[in-house]
Amino acid sequence: MTAIAIDCDGVLADFTHAFGEMANRVLGDNRYKDGWQPGDWNFGGLYTAKEQSKVWKAIRTTDNFWLTLRAYQDNVSALVRWVYRNPGADVWIVTSRAETAGMTVAKQTAHWLHMCSCRDINGKDVTVVPVTDSDDKWKIYEAMEIGYSIDDKAETVEQCDAMLDHRPIPDGRGKHRAYLLDRPWNQDAKVNRRIGSVADYLKEII
Questions:
Q1: Which CATH number is 3-13+69-203's, of 3.40.50.720, 3.40.50.1000, 3.40.50.150, 3.40.50.2300?
Q2: Contact 160, 185 (CB under 8 A)
Q3: pLDDT reported for residue 42
Q4: How do the domains of the chain map onto residue ranges?
Q5: What is the 3-state secondary structure (H, E, C) of 48-71?
Q6: What would the mean pLDDT of 49-63 be, rounded to a whole number?
């Protein structure tokens, strides 16, 4: 049975937009403009570290913040179509989201997926696996015998390349293959596999 992992924020969900909208409210300006994308992981110099801390504090105290994110619709739709066509596959949404007020990260993410029609597909939900630190993702992939993963964080894919490329996945389908979703904020990454969309990633699954 094929087992695949997909990151949520930056891949399925538009975290940049949600963070920017929150920053506009918390900081009292309209510095963030819809459609702007950072050139690095720290918002491309748009906000200072102190300002980002203020925004994160507001996020953590907002009830069910993760339900407010809008979807990257093309990527979500590609996933929904693929799961319908591959009922035997295990799909894991592995995310390192911060806890907020309201429901747990796992429940918020699951509800968000349901809102995007990723629910009860072929009698089985897409499963959410929250991790405290993104540095632990490669360990999850190894322990759960996940053969494929996609992420927008360069360090996560680099860790998978370093730790898993030489280890066969026990399901007999070869080594783990990690893909970096091409984004403006990860252009300096040194990874083995860069991909343009979730649809292209899913074409790689065998």
A1: 3.40.50.1000
A2: no
A3: 87
A4: 3-13+69-203, 15-67
A5: CHHHHHHHHHHHHCCCCHHHHCCE
A6: 97
Evaluate if residue 94 carries a pLDDT over 70.
Answer: yes
Please write down the HEC assignment for all residues of 27-45: HCCCCCCCCCCCCCCCHHH
Distance separating alpha carbons of residues 42 and 21, to the nearest angstrom: 16
Write down the residue that tokens 């759960």 correspond to. Answer: 144
Q: What are the b/e assignments for 158-193, b being 16+ CB within 10 Å?
A: bbbbeebeeeebeeebeebbbbbbebebbeebebeb
Q: Look at strands 174-175 and 194-195 and give their pairing.
A: unpaired
- Helices then strands, counting H and E runs in the chain, come out as 7, 8
Closest of 89, 113, 111 to residue 102, by C-alpha? 111
The answer on pLDDT for 170 being more than 80 is: no
Task: Please state, in angstroms and rounded to a whole number, the distance separating the CA atoms of residues 44 and 126.
Answer: 33
Q: Write down the pTM of the prediction.
A: 0.93
Phi, psi for residue 149 in degrees, rounded to 5: -145, 155
Distance (Å, whole) CA 182 – CA 191: 11
Average pLDDT over residues 45-73: 96
- For residue range 121-164, what is the model confidence (pLDDT) as tens digits? 545 567 899 999 999 999 999 988 899 999 999 999 999 998 88
